[in-house]
Amino acid sequence: MKNIVIKRLFIAVLLTIAATPAFSQVEKFKALYVFNFAKNIGWSGSDVNKDFVISVMGDEQLADELIKHSRTRTVGGRRVVVKIVNNVSDATGSEMIYVSEKKTAAVASMVGSNSRSVIICGRRGQCSSGAHISFYLDEGRLCYEISEQNIHKAGYNCSKKMLELGRQV
């Protein structure tokens, strides 16, 4: 009996260790996608002297990945600043806001108060709540849905390639 418990515990630990890199890998891909989204959206040229702010709510691992990338990348010649935020008001003035899967209840209030921010969610189906882009996994592959209509409502355009690569909703 004791051996069975030890074996099950050992298997549980191995599964946890094996799952951790996969989760980290998803966050790395999300960070790359976010930077590609930023490069493929037509931002206002009048903000060229301001930092490009990406706020992250509820996903510190993604924030860490974005911070790593922000050291070597710019968006439209602008320095990228990544902020970790806890609520909607802290994200005011951000060009992009990433909302984790566990914080998507905040999306509806973000749409009105951050009308010029591109909102990216970690849960599928959030474009119907006003988000612009939503990540989801399809058979282990990271994908995104995108609402061109919501992006236009915020006053922006996005590249055709960005629309073609995502699932338009």
Structure notes:
The protein is of the alpha/beta class and 169 residues long. Helices cover 40% and strands 22% of the residues. It has five helices and eight strands; from the N terminus they run H-E-H-E-E-E-H-E-E-E-H-H-E. Strands 2-3-1-4-5-6-7-8 form an eight-stranded mixed beta sheet, with helices on both faces. Helix 1 crosses helix 2. It starts with a helix and ends with a strand.
Query: What is the rounded Rg?
Result: 18 Å
The CATH architecture category equals 3-Layer(aba) Sandwich
The whole-number mean of residue pLDDT values reads: 83
**Main pleated sheet:** 8 strands, mixed
Structural class: alpha/beta
Low-confidence stretches: 9-23
- The CATH topology name reads Rossmann fold
* H-E order: HEHEEEHEEEHHE
Termini separation (Å)? 53 Å
Helix content: 40-55%
CATH class, please?
A: Alpha Beta
Key attributes of the depicted protein:
5 helices; eight-stranded mixed sheet; alpha/beta; Rossmann fold; single chain; 8 strands; globular; 169 residues
